[in-house]
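Forwarding the complex inputs:
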Amino acid sequence: MKKVTINSVASYAGVSKKTVSRVLNNEPNVSDATREKVLKVFKELDYTPNPIARGLAQNRSFIIGCIYDNPSKSYITRVQTGALAACQGNNYNLLIHPCDLRGDALISNIEHLLHSSRLDGLVLTPPFSDFKVLVDFLKRKKIPYARVASAVLEDDSISVRSNDEQGAFEITEHLIKLGHKAIAFIKGHPDHSATEQRFKGYRRALSTHGIEFNERLVEEGNFSYHSGVDSARSILDLTPRPTAVFASNDYMAAAVLKLATQRQLKVPNDISIAGFDNAPIARHIWPGLTTIAQPVEEMTKQAVTKLIEHIGDPQEQPYQVTLEARLITRESTAQVK
Amino acid sequence: MKKVTINSVASYAGVSKKTVSRVLNNEPNVSDATREKVLKVFKELDYTPNPIARGLAQNRSFIIGCIYDNPSKSYITRVQTGALAACQGNNYNLLIHPCDLRGDALISNIEHLLHSSRLDGLVLTPPFSDFKVLVDFLKRKKIPYARVASAVLEDDSISVRSNDEQGAFEITEHLIKLGHKAIAFIKGHPDHSATEQRFKGYRRALSTHGIEFNERLVEEGNFSYHSGVDSARSILDLTPRPTAVFASNDYMAAAVLKLATQRQLKVPNDISIAGFDNAPIARHIWPGLTTIAQPVEEMTKQAVTKLIEHIGDPQEQPYQVTLEARLITRESTAQVK
DNA sequence: TTCAACCCTGACACCGGTGTCATAATGTGA
DNA sequence: TCACATTATGACACCGGTGTCAGGGTTGAA
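Prediction (whole assembly, four chains):
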């Protein structure tokens, strides 16, 4: 396989390489005849421009970085799927970069990443989406970025989220309509803005339906399965035991289910359990978890698509969208007895 | 932030850029004094070489591609973790590229990927690790590659695997020692070489312990949760019902567990269930699954590390390693009654 | 002392594209 | 028909590194 460069194309087509470059980039000021001719040579020689050389000349890498620090692997997988879908159509690549939110070295870590890989932009996934220190840093350095699933919509950035508060409201209301009054709640990781949003939705549903909020029914989790086990223990030990548990994600809900089952409780007859996210595990266990389906892939895909547009044309408008979350009822919730 | 290039370093240190380049690449023939001086300037100016420029000059991209077509997301996640660990220390990046094994366009898809992204090498994960068409193509094109979890060790390539056959043998033997004689088996995806290996281990354990192999106890799955449900249905409908089921991965085992539980069977009292891989789900459900822990991260890390070495020095020896798989017993298997 | 061998160093071309600017070709209005 | 604007094209430098090679300085053996 001999290499086909812009020079071979140029000499073969009998034009200068600058003209080939013009055709490549759809620039104006090329006659139709010349453009046709060059395009034909592209096909004949099966020419693909070298992204590295382009990158060097334009100081671009055609790579988007995706940074994350998330205990939920399935969430990350879904984020990647969405991001890849956006990259593939645009000749962009996706570089994945796990890192510590809490580490003091975070900023210098990111700085090194940007510097050494010359990323064109960054996708911020929770909990980075609302991490002010980082966002401010990127703004100051003028690094293009897009935020996925952040709580707040700013005016001047790309941000795609889903309505966590409303989702939590709906699933709590679902439990209330099944007759539940004592509904325990397991919070997510304090660094994630979704944690606060979901909690708000839970409280709004309670107050909408005239149920008094009870502090003792709330446990602090961190989205990990393990934290769900700890929270579940506290909740199941309460007397009287709540008739329902709403965990801020499916992993923690699965942990509640596991512990309840270990303790010979029947789900949903003895206790109803609801989760959030519609992670694969929600349908891999018995009983299947009632949960809220978040369009994670779609959110990320839109965010990355807009990010790439923005990189190509920095004048591009900001983009602020909220997608809908959807209630999915399965076997883990039932009428209270 | 002003840009620090090799030129600034060179003029600041009072040497030519070639000398700076020599220091950068640890080349010989630089006096200690000069080397020290340049290294000091690196620090003072906080210089990081531009990988794009290096890539252009050396016709390298410093990117490893990881291709996969795997229903098990958690497997992919683990592969990524291992690959990233190897990349990070070596200033390499990881590009992830899902694609269809069965598509006729596979080769041209990969060809385009290689051509347009100038990948330095490829990590082949199952089922690509043993996909002859692709391996032959890469060999012919002289693209460096490493295989993870392939069934066969070749002489001239980088390949890191774990002992699937032995793992399957051990877990089957574990069941046999618990008194099980009618042990159903669910096969994996026919494209994956692990499928055959695990089946072999199962049969070897049976014959070692003088148990006759029974074709009717074997179901065809494909590693997906869904296929596990179908297989589970057939198995649980058998009369007499087997006292144990060994599924070729944890997702399918989880499906068996779910269906058995739905049918009011007690696991492990009424039926024992064993899986393979030690996926997260194995410990997220109740009862936890007895399974075989494969060092997926470690396999991938070693494979990628060797791949990067090989790229840097094509004379590098081939590398053929088999890591050990380990039996993990949880609550899903018990003495037969 | 002499000369080859070796070590260090820098000048320069090159990787494969893009940006800038000059120039040739064409079009337009008076 | 001429002056001037506009379009099409190419020459050339440049992005930030690396490869090649030549030349000056040392060293060691003859």
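The first helix of chain B runs from residue 6 to 13.
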